[in-house]
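Re: weekly structure request thread

Next one in the queue (410 aa):
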Amino acid sequence: MKLTTLIARRYLFSRKKITLISTLTVISIAGVTVGTALLIVVLSVFNGLFDLIKESILAHDPDIRIESAEGQAMRLNQHQMNFISNHPEIEFYSPFVEGKALIAHRGGIYKVAMVRGVEETVFETILDLNVEFAGLPYDLSVREGRPGLLIGRNLMNQMGMRTGDEIALLSAQAIQRSLTQFSGPRTLNFHIRGTYIMDQMHDDSVIFVQKEAAQRLFNMRNAISGIDIQLHDHDRAEAVKQLFMQELGDAFLVRTWYDLQKPLYDVMNLEKWGAFLILMIIVLVAAFNIVGSLTMIVVQKTRDIALLRSIGMTTIKVREIFFRQGLIIGLIGCGAGGFLGFLLCWLQDSFGLVKLAGAEAFVISAYPVSVVFTDVLLIMGGSLMLCLMASLYPAYRASSIKISEALRFE
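Done, posted below.
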């Protein structure tokens, strides 16, 4: 063991008796321990909530969505379609047509809803819907002269509709034409083939129809509103987005799953790192306590430091003694805090000790936790850095002690 480390340990922990300095040292270690443990637990809870919401949103959002940059109907040429269909990182893609329409039901009930035209064979793999068809076949195509549609359970109940009913859809463009051209609006009649249920985090007022039916409804012919893309690895979405932007050009808007819900994700990240900065204050307070305890050691051991200097110890070695004291406090506090934080996270994950308020109306009953290795490294590194910085002033003061003045009255 190095001499500086041996002296640092001896100054911190007295074996003979409990002194004020050793008490302050224990308090400093406890502060670093509590702060580190709390940081690990709180950031792990934020990570768990982020993963939960992300998983729920990704069940209804694509990894990448391509739309027209001008917000209009878009058309892709054959080369662009081949690029999308042959891209090795794409698992599948689904063109869609989307717009707002007025729902008209018997009894004079009207309501505006979003109508989304999809390809039946693909959209189920992108959207995780709890679909009920009440014995009818899963088919949105034209049957008995009427195309089918899939409607949200809540919206159907609000309008007093049932599976098998016929409803009329009127697009906003058709209403505008009827007002400007003084002609009757063109409506399309649909059969309700089934209902679906989504969790409370998502809007279930979207009506799903076949893509061709939506093109007729919105008078879009062969155009589409966009393309939803599912990747083999959704973490590669940003890299694939850059490739698409280079290939498709500025005429198209390419957004990832993060971009689609960016305000929500940004708020969650802001809350997470805001909590990190606030909880680091606990470690900062412990660091100020380290400054006080190490400064008291310098004052108490002035004679010892002078003797060490007189027998040949350099000022650099004297500084190293107090740097190592800060390092020892930091390592013990971070190690104990890391163990305590991991233990609390494991207990919460295994037994759900802290329950969510109103959990009966949510998808989980207790706070989720997800320990991220990079977050732990940041917490441990930040706490250790504060402990080392706290030893700067005591180390400088110890190295500036003059031998003649310290031993004058000895």
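The chain has two domains: 3-58+264-407, 64-260. The mean pLDDT is 86.
Next request, please.
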